[in-house]
Amino acid sequence: MAIQSRHRLNEPVGARDHTRGPRSAAISLVEYGDFECPYCRAAEPIVAGLMEALGDRLSVTFRHFPMLEVHPHSQHAAEVAEAAAAQGKFWEMRDMLFANQNALDDVSLVKYAADLGLDVDRVRRELASHERAGRVAEDRRSGLASAVGGTPTFYIDGARYDGSVALRQMLAEIRELHPELEVADSGVTNLRIPRVTWPRRPVA
User: Fold this and answer.
1) Looking at the chain, which terminus has fewer C-beta neighbours within 10 angstroms, N or C?
2) pLDDT in tens, 124-133
3) Quick check: 80 and 93 in contact, CB under 8 A?
């Protein structure tokens, strides 16, 4: 039985989004994430496993949902990802931030920009002026309007997925939603993160 809730994306995936895979893919996966959230980092190999299993039948979109109440570096990390996006390297920075999750202070963020060959002075100015904060806030507002209450939150084909964040279970969900695609899970390891407990109300 499909494990999708009645909550749907308030903002459909569009040209403004950061998306891996064909936008015309049969299956859409959207993640609201926080670069300082250990659960989001733990979900990385699960998303990678979905991409490996489904190939060009899957598109993966990442949206920002910094949880400032518990992750003080999450806002600036999201902003530096957007600064990198302005220079054509969003996904490279995203991967860098998750790989270095324990070092997300501003000095480290600028170092990662240098490591990726970005215009460091521009990144430094944009961080200092919060030039990219508005773009991050847009994602967060759309998340709140879509009933995001914590990170990571996933949406499959626009509906919030409320099952275990585990590779085998997510593939099973996709198989049920798309029986015509003959999604197999033979040989798939059961990568998982601890079940996320949703708060009674979305984070303000």
Assistant:
1) C
2) 999 999 999 9
3) yes
As given in the structure block, the two tokens for residue 27 are 């299956």
This prediction has a pTM of 0.90
Yes or no: say if 154 and 96 are a contact pair by the CB < 8 Å rule.
no
Residue 20 forms beta bridges with which residues?
Answer: 60
- By the 10 Å C-beta count (0-12 exposed, 13-18 middle, 19+ buried), 111 is classed as middle
Cross-strand pairs, 63: 32
Task: Give the pair of three-digit tokens for residue 117.
Answer: 């060959």
Q: Domains in the chain, please, with CATH?
A: 4-9+25-181 (3.40.30.10)
- List CB contacts of 164: < 8 A, sequence separation 6 or more: 192, 195
164-201 pLDDT, tens digit each:
999 999 999 999 999 988 776 655 667 777 654 444 34
Q: How far is CA 18 from the centre of its chain?
A: 9
